[in-house]
Design brief:
heterodimer, A: about 160 residues, alpha+beta, globular, B: about 425 residues, 7-stranded mixed sheet
């Protein structure tokens, strides 16, 4: 049991949780959305700057949440920069599957960046903690809503 | 003389048996199970309490031996089930010392009981500009029904503030009581902080201005007991499942003279005297407010739970819970980085806290693996969380079956969180 806890709270996650990257509100963001998890009251706002070619030039977030949700948001903002909207959506789908399905059930999405998925692997521990999957995916759902032009995302 | 007064006298005269928590735990089958290979340490009774064998047996016996619909049917089973059902109503009457059993309305939950008052009493008696007083520490169930009425009627909600310790500011309450106040709706005891509100003063001050009072007794009735006649409260609501009874049943107590002036809440069977397509006449209390087949098995289970609690003695339970709460508070106060929310001198049974550097959700997950079940979240009291400027807290809540050893297990598990979070 303690191994599962160590899987969930790996050093990388604790580090991103304590010192989140891109924790700011960029003034030139042109896409943004707010997300909340009604179960715990956690909130996140995701800001993106997408250029005319559909490439994410900047990504940032603000909000309050647990170590898992903060680390996930922090890593997400690092990984999406430089990618096209399509690539980001594919990454989100792969990440969502990683958090919710066993390895053998994963579909390999065309165009997914294996290196990025490898970095996100540290969050795969949430699979053993079904109540915490929403924590790991909140920022991603919010980013997806921002890309789709929606203003709000909710884990409900 | 009600049961609580009786037990109090027994305690004073030394004729009461001591409270043996280890013996009492044997009544609760679930407490002997393990979680993740660890003994279950259940510290979430404020969300819902575990059930003693006496309740489980009463419900099984009802379904295996004496089940039928109630208040209809001439056959033996229906008569027997009706007798048992109505006996449970009398048990509730005795438990809260209501004057008459027809003042006890069975609902689906405490939430439904508040909605009943809002829809029936509120719609009939409130006009635009009328004011309802609630408090900063209310559960959403005692906020949202009034907000819905506000949208419909244009009434105004006034909020009694609290101080940093989570104590109601009674001076401010007195100031809020004005000519436009039509109802005071406040919790007997806070589910998120454990604060016990001075409900007798709250009722007295309101009544001096001719204002009726509704008390949310979900926590209060469980940990403190209530004598509704002594309080002179107009409405008192609570749920069954926090009282070691089943889910799906709640209670609305209302003074008969007020309930009699209220229109039905829902229409249907069981609440009518005579129906034609032109006109329907309604039954009297309490059936007028109990449309449809009620939660028969659950009501009987609730009756068994209350008999069980009266048998143990509410005062003895309260004294035991206070001992465990005090001990747990001491243990947690010794852990660096722990902040306790709710430090009112008058509190019971609830220990809400945060741990510096670790979000309550992370705390909850980690200690769960040690078998310790607490609630981590906003406790359906988001305005209160806003007051303390936190999204959530972790909350350990103690029931009659919790022990000092379990408080130690909580403290030990929290030290483990600190190891992981450094």
């Amino acid at each position: 049991m303690l191994d599962e806890l160590r899987d969930l709270y790996q050093e990388v996650i604790l580090d991103h949780g304590k010192n989140p990257r891109n924790f700011r509100h960029p003034e030139d963001a042109n896409r943004e959305a707010k997300g909340d998890n009604p179960m715990c009251g956690d909130k996140v706002a995701v800001f993106l700057k997408v250029n005319g070619d559909g490439i994410v030039e900047d990504a940032a977030f603000e909000g309050r949440g647990c170590a898992i949700s903060t680390a996930s948001a922090s890593m997400m903002t690092e990984l999406v920069v430089g990618r096209s909207e399509e690539q980001v959506k594919t990454l989100f789908e792969s990440f969502h599957e990683m958090c919710t399905k066993d390895d053998h059930e994963h579909v390999h999405h065309d165009g997914v960046d294996d290196e990025a998925m490898e970095k996100l692997q540290v969050l795969a521990g949430v699979r053993q903690f079904p109540m915490r999957v929403k924590c790991a995916t909140l920022a991603w759902h919010t980013m997806d809503a921002a890309l789709k032009g929606g203003a709000k995302a909710s884990t409900e | 003389m009600n049961e609580i007064t009786k037990v109090r006298q027994e305690l004073e005269t030394g004729t009461a048996a001591p409270f043996d928590v280890y013996e009492v735990r044997k009544d609760f089958p679930i407490l002997s199970r393990t979680v993740y290979g660890k003994p279950l340490v259940y510290l979430d009774s404020a969300a819902s309490a575990q059930k003693p064998r006496q309740v489980i047996d009463a419900m099984v016996s009802c379904m295996t031996e004496e089940y039928s619909n109630v208040h209809r049917g001439l056959h033996w089973l229906s008569a027997t089930a009706t007798t048992r059902f109505e006996a449970a109503r009398k048990t509730v009457q005795r438990f809260i010392n209501a004057r008459e059993d027809r003042e006890i309305i069975f609902t689906r939950s405490a939430t439904e009981a508040i909605n009943l008052v809002a829809a029936s009493w509120g719609r009939t008696n409130l006009r635009e500009g009328d004011e309802i007083i609630v408090s900063q520490m209310e559960h959403h169930a005692n906020i949202v029904p009034w907000q819905m009425l506000r949208t419909e009627k244009g009434i105004v909600l006034k909020v009694v503030p609290i101080d940093e310790s989570g104590t109601l500011l009674m001076d401010e309450y007195e100031k809020l009581l004005g000519p436009k106040t039509k109802l005071v709706a406040i919790s007997h005891m806070s589910n998120a902080l454990g604060t016990i509100n001075p409900v007798k003063d709250i009722v007295r001050l309101a009544h001096e201005k001719g204002v009726p009072v509704l008390l949310d007794g979900c926590q209060g009735v469980t940990h403190l007991g209530v004598d509704v006649q002594d309080l002179d409260v107009d409405f008192y609501v609570f749920s069954g499942h926090k009282l070691y009874g089943p889910t799906g049943v709640g209670v609305l107590y209302g003074k008969a003279e007020i309930l009699e002036g209220m229109p039905p809440y829902q229409g249907g069977g069981d609440m009518i005297a005579r129906v034609t397509f032109e006109e329907t006449t309604f039954k009297g209390l309490p059936h007028r407010f109990e449309a449809g087949t009620p939660a028969i098995v659950e009501v009987i289970g609730l009756g068994a739970a209350l008999e069980y609690l009266m048998g143990l003695g509410l005062d003895r339970i309260a004294a035991h819970e206070h001992d465990v709460l005090t001990y747990a508070t001491e243990l947690l106060s010794e852990i660096p980085g722990v902040r306790i929310y709710g430090t009112s001198p008058h509190k019971a049974s609830i220990l809400s806290f945060t741990l510096e550097g670790a979000h309550p959700h992370d705390v909850g997950t980690i200690i769960d693996r040690a078998g310790v079940a607490v609630r981590a979240g906003h406790h359906c009291a988001q305005p209160l969380m806003d007051f303390y400027n936190v999204a959530a807290t972790a909350r350990a809540s103690f029931g009659l079956y919790n022990t000092r050893e379990e408080a130690e297990a909580l403290a030990g598990a929290l030290r483990r969180v600190k190891e992981i979070f450094g």
